């Protein structure tokens, strides 16, 4: 089975797939008479199609342990999908570029509990892989008329490991 | 000085002002082959005006202690503003109904570190009041051409206390 190791999650490495939502390195300025710092506009939200709009939800993901067999990926053709951890636990982000899904192009990142990710529209990703404990995430994604989740099985499984 | 005590934050009590973003009591269903629970569409996002769009930011608020003197309120005429706590600490939500600001209509709520709030457009609220420690919040609010923050000093201060 093909093996895939986790990389640290950085804005630069994740750029082909979307945004890393974190304070480090972000544009920021004081508001509220100096009592609050605003880290401003951290993700490109995308929503298209009929009656499309962004919505806010919470996902509660069960805890996984590595090594873990990856057998499928999914993408959302009509919108971005943002995950922001609320429970402070790390999680795994598995992605592949837009277009035809090619297993050898799959990459995996280890996100800290203080890093969110925003998958851009069309970017292949694995469903939520929380580590350590069942974890909640705030989600900003797209509602609309068209079905917006395309799943595809891999023609060969990938073993995800630290 | 007029004194104001904190109420527990509940969906019902907060309904005139906006949404409480929490899993408890929310519509939910399984996704990702049963490994994730989706608590679905928890807030009414609003954004109007020229070139209006929702944006995602992080606010880092300094810690306050009570009792605290409240001297002003603000509102956003062109959009809602959602706060979701990322640090797990409680915070205080001070609000008044849309329209002419009347100090005797101000209410204060104690939010847990697992409860977000979404102020609806036009609803008066106080800037961020984190308790216990400096705390980060994920924010979903509106960007656009028109200025979108109206501040107003109170004609009499209010003493906020537990």
UniProtKB/TrEMBL annotation, chains A, B:
Keywords: Lyase, Purine metabolism. InterPro entries: RmlC_Cupin_sf, UAH_cupin, Ureidogly_lyase, Ureidogly_lyase_bac, Ureidoglycolate_lyase_dom_sf. Pathway: Nitrogen metabolism; (S)-allantoin degradation. The keyword Lyase applies. Its EC number is 4.3.2.3. Belongs to the ureidoglycolate lyase family. Catalyzes the catabolism of the allantoin degradation intermediate (S)-ureidoglycolate, generating urea and glyoxylate. Involved in the utilization of allantoin as nitrogen source. This is Ureidoglycolate lyase. It comes from Agarivorans gilvus. The gene is allA.
